[in-house]
Design brief:
This protein is of the alpha/beta class. Helix content is about 40%, strand content about 30%.
């Protein structure tokens, strides 16, 4: 872990304000049905939940946009929604937050992805997913690429946010990275298992340790195994830097010329890890866009992950809280 002095911290925070970031990936809604357990159903041995509250929030790549917005940057979402009621709700939520809807592609006969969580007596009872995981067809792929091509010259960087829901095809990945490299744009990637090894030549590639194990078909239990896996990914994908997140065990940063930095976790108490990956990629991207080097950006992302893991539920990172935590760490 490196120390970021106050002058440098102020420079980074000031510089990433109003940076425009395009987030390309799987758009979702997180729906919460909250109530009390009334009784056991006579139809099956399951609890009956009397719902007294419904909450719908931006999820998936849209949660990354929410984090980018909270950091003071300007998010632009590119992805697909269905021509349905939840698609309308999705657009309304974007309007409420003043998030650019310019990159949305609406598809007939494909549902807007919704994760419905049923909560009874503060317990997570069940989750119901409405989604299609099929890759989008050639026509819609071209529509997404058209949106990317139109928006790319106006942004400072892009984030690929992959949840394996069918938006990030090999063609979209390769074409977008090539266009972004030609325009000297910052490219960060939060991958999933499918197409994991298609993200070549990004600025930053950020898998978690489980995704790394699955992609390379290895078991990573010790630092030696982690460093070997990191070296393989650096060789295969050729990013400028690789950041492997390890949950409660922190992160490991790989840079060119075999430079490796292990970063310990900064959460005082871990209440919920949901959304931590979205926060990490958001802070990482904003910091680099603001002039941070890779070690500084990883340090800020690590502090941010520690903050959001102390909250129950998925919430965007608070920029002011992150700044205060960073100042506090520097004074220790």
């Amino acid at each position: 872990m490196i120390n970021i002095d106050l002058a440098r911290l102020n420079f980074i925070f000031k510089n990433f304000k109003n940076k425009k970031i395009m987030i390309i990936g799987d758009l979702m809604l997180d729906e919460y049905l909250i109530g009390k357990v009334a009784r056991i159903s006579p139809e099956a041995p399951v609890p009956v939940i009397e719902v007294n509250k419904q909450d719908i929030r931006l999820g998936g790549a849209a949660n990354v946009a929410n984090n980018i917005l909270s950091l003071g940057c300007i998010p632009v979402l590119v992805g697909i929604i269905g021509n349905d009621r939840m698609g309308d709700i999705f657009k309304n939520l974007l309007r409420e937050k003043n998030i650019y809807p310019d990159g949305l592609v609406c598809i007939e006969n494909r549902p807007t992805t919704v994760k419905t969580r049923i909560i009874g007596e503060s317990q997570h009872i069940a989750r119901v997913d409405h989604e299609s995981k099929e890759y989008i067809d050639f026509e819609n792929e071209n529509l997404v690429l058209q949106k990317i091509n139109e928006i790319l010259p106006t942004v400072d960087g892009i984030i690929f946010e992959d949840y394996n829901k069918g938006v990030l095809t090999k063609t979209i990945i390769e074409t977008t990275i090539n266009l972004a490299r030609k325009q000297n744009k910052l490219i960060t990637v939060d991958p999933k298992f499918k197409n994991f090894l298609e993200y070549k030549n990004a600025t930053v590639f950020k898998p978690n340790i489980k995704e790394t194990e699955e992609a390379l078909a290895v078991s990573i239990l010790r630092n030696e195994e982690l460093e070997k896996a990191g070296a393989i990914l650096m060789e295969k994908l050729k990013p400028e830097c690789l950041l492997i997140t390890k949950g409660s065990n922190g992160m490991t940063l790989f840079e060119k010329e075999s430079k490796i930095t292990h970063v310990s976790t900064k959460a005082r108490k871990v209440a919920d890890v949901s959304g931590a990956g979205d926060t990490v990629i958001s802070v990482l991207t904003a910091a680099i866009a603001g002039g941070a080097n890779f070690q500084e950006a990883a340090t800020l992302a690590n502090y941010a992950a520690g903050i959001v893991c102390e909250e129950v539920g998925i919430f965007p990172i608070d920029k002011d809280k992150l700044y205060k935590v960073c100042i506090g760490k520097n004074s220790e």
